[in-house]
Amino acid sequence: MASEEGLRDREQQEGYRAPRVTLTIKDFDVLGRIGDGSFSTVFLARQKQNGKQYAIKMMNKHLVMRNKMVEYIKNERFILDKLDDAGIAKLHFTFQDPDNLYMGMEYCAGGELYEQINKRGRLPLDAVRFYAAEVVLILEYLRKAQVVHRDLKPENLLLSGEGHLKLVDFGSARAFFLPAAEKPPGKQRATSFVGTAEYVSPEVLLNAPLSYPADLWALGCMLYQMIVGRPPFKAASEYLTFQKITDRDFAYPGDANYNADGEPEDEEEEEADGEGAAKDAAAAAAAPREAGGAEATAGGEGAGSSGGAAAGGEGAGPGPGPGPGPAAGGKPPKLPKLRGPVVYPDEARDLTDRLLAMEPAARIGAEDISELRAHPFFAGLDWARLRAGTAPPYQPPRVPGAPGSDGGYEEGLDWELTSLVRDAAES
């Protein structure tokens, strides 16, 4: 099995695609924070020896052991080591010190899909079709690999520098080729689910056996969110959200019972838009393709979250990509927010309905993913060239650690990250 070029496993074992290396945090220049998981901090780092950039996920051993999440961390490492697909963020290497575990992940220059939806209010239909199709390819690969992700959501789908999707955060995943991890105490109730409230499938809430269609339900939720701008099942609390899921209580734009109150609001006209555009342009001008944030998953099982930690290419940094590049003045254009009434096309509605079927076996693609490929919503797509083709334009996110970025983590001023790295280097 091929390992990361130039890196050897510390015990000279060839069975690892991602070797266990003898690196330390001192071998990297820490460039800035990407985000945080339940027991982890994710930061952008450049390896001093070769200049490559990685999203380094640092997990505190004490917190992992105190919360009895060791098996989940092991499972994530084993699963990522076995996966090898263009739609999965690559694990390049792992290392550790007395206090922390480290995973060197691909760095995704385009940030989270969630941020693209949030910035524009919703996505154009051609972008929705493209991203949904790439998720279909990812799920097709995972099924062949005997893996259910269990936390599929826009926050866990990152864009490469070229604008293609990469799935991250396998801390909640279940690989049928591995023994099930023992649940920590207090995590046995039906509502102590694995995943995130708005995307969890009804069978998970009802303690039904886990199966591949759980990820198909999440795809249906994301399809709706990309078109409308918010998830189909969202309420004031997790409990009420669970109720909406088990009652399949949602409506499409144009339906008599549709409530538009939860839709993203238009911004306060041009002055506010202009100010935001200036900030985004200033951050993106420094590096037009950068990474998204990380977020803790709901439920204890998400402790292994890689959050927004992953990739574009071989971790060597941003590529050119088809996203909005710098204009004449060196500033990339801000993609406009989509305004006006939401239109939910018939083909998209049919696909959403069939993905959000209450019975897992009834969901389109439950038996064969090729059913999804053949749906009219994807008519005209060249599946064989999808990942090699041009991706939709995207709004570049902030540069981790860049001065003037709007993330609040300007270089040299992220005292918490500086302290974490210093303590790790001294351990």
UniProtKB/TrEMBL annotation:
Bias kind Gly residues: ranges: 299-318
Skewed-composition ranges (Low complexity): 279-298
Region (Disordered): 253-341, 390-412
Family assignment from sequence similarity: Belongs to the protein kinase superfamily. AGC Ser/Thr protein kinase family. PDPK1 subfamily.
E.C. number(s) listed in UniProt: 2.7.11.1
Biased composition (Acidic residues): 262-274
SUPFAM superfamilies associated with the record: Protein kinase-like (PK-like)
Residues of the Protein kinase domain: 28-378
Gene3D superfamilies to which the protein is assigned, alphabetical: Phosphorylase Kinase, domain 1 (3.30.200.20), Transferase(Phosphotransferase) domain 1 (1.10.510.10)
Database matches in SMART domains: S_TKc
GO-annotated molecular function: ATP binding; protein serine/threonine kinase activity
Organism name: Chlamydomonas incerta
Catalytic activity reported: L-threonyl-[protein] + ATP = O-phospho-L-threonyl-[protein] + ADP + H(+); L-seryl-[protein] + ATP = O-phospho-L-seryl-[protein] + ADP + H(+)
Protein known as: non-specific serine/threonine protein kinase
One GO term (biological process): intracellular signal transduction
Keywords in alphabetical order: ATP-binding, Kinase, Nucleotide-binding, Serine/threonine-protein kinase, Transferase
InterPro entries given in the database record: Kinase-like_dom_sf (IPR011009), Prot_kinase_dom (IPR000719), Protein_kinase_ATP_BS (IPR017441), Ser/Thr_kinase_AS (IPR008271), Ser_Thr_kinase_AGC (IPR050236)
Signal peptide location: none
Binding site for ATP: 57
